[in-house]
Description:
Oligomer: single chain
Largest sheet: 8 strands, mixed
Strand content: 15-25%
CATH class of the largest domain: Alpha Beta
Distance between the termini: 21 Å
Strand order of the largest sheet: 4-3-2-7-14-15-1-16
CATH architecture of the largest domain: 3-Layer(aba) Sandwich
Amino acid sequence: MASEVYYTNLRTTFHENLLQKLARLVKRAGMLDKIDFSNKYTAIKIHFGEPGNLAYLRPNYSRVIVDLIGSQGGRAFLTDCNTLYVGGRKNALDHLDSAYINGYNPFTTGCHLLIADGLKGTDDIMVPVDGEYVKEAKIGRAIMDADIFISMNHFKGHEATGFGGALKNIGMGCGSRAGKMEMHNATSPFVLKDTCIGCGSCKKSCAHGAISMEDKKAFIDETKCVGCGRCIGVCPVDAVANHCDESNDILNKKIAEYSLAVLKDRPHFHISFVVDVSPYCDCHAENDLPIVPDVGMFASFDPVALDMACADAVNRQPAIVGCVLEERERCHHDHFTDVHPETNWMVALEHAEKLGIGTRAYQLIEI
């Protein structure tokens, strides 16, 4: 059975601006009618944007959703988890600084911001998942403590998954630093000897005795390491790194399994903005020229159908003159594969459908 995906373009009138149109979209999609927000905590998962990147979602959009939830007696907060890589969002303090720089603060959004996996990315909850690759997903604690889950997604390209939409924002985005490592890697982390200062923080945090000090440098014994990723979070100089040795197809499947861990057994709703469709993730400290013109806003209770509808919408668009898509030999079946030929974005959707998260079949309802 096809899932309902609601859509509106970006045209406005003198009587309705874009933010008012967003409110009408989510109301029509049933968010307020089908979810009881009264006296419940709602986690709104959003990407605050890496400093230097200008393609991330404007905070004005989140204020609309926060106010709607508040009108129903709910208590919303904006949230994300720390990044695995070194950048402006690798710990909660830097992450909040980055959010503030990009305009996300309680005054603009109408709610508080919580970094879900804590100061160093080690505050997570092990969520059982009967997946093909994941048995216990490591999800940021604040996200799992919430009663209701909402995702607000910037739909764009991605160098490892083809595109980043709802499933990418949910699965990868809600994983703690250790969870992100699990999705990216099949092996243990390793120590960059030239960077290590021999402080022993990683050794103290290891519950499995896998880390020792050799010549005043940390060493990880892969035979003892369980891949929890705590050492990555506690290292003060980012000397513990990951191999990124998982194939893109397996990465996509793990993202789907992590998404299941986040969504199961509680109400959830999803909104995607197909605007500023940059070829790469918002985790980059820069954004390239969009590959297609802006399309519109989409909303659904089904994140799989939502991603499918957004991908189809992008593939119906012409390439923008001068963008990376136009420069590539467009010989594949879609824009995202043309930009990133080594990816197959359909894998995540197919696996999510197999897991029962949703369906790729959708009915597009335009308002």
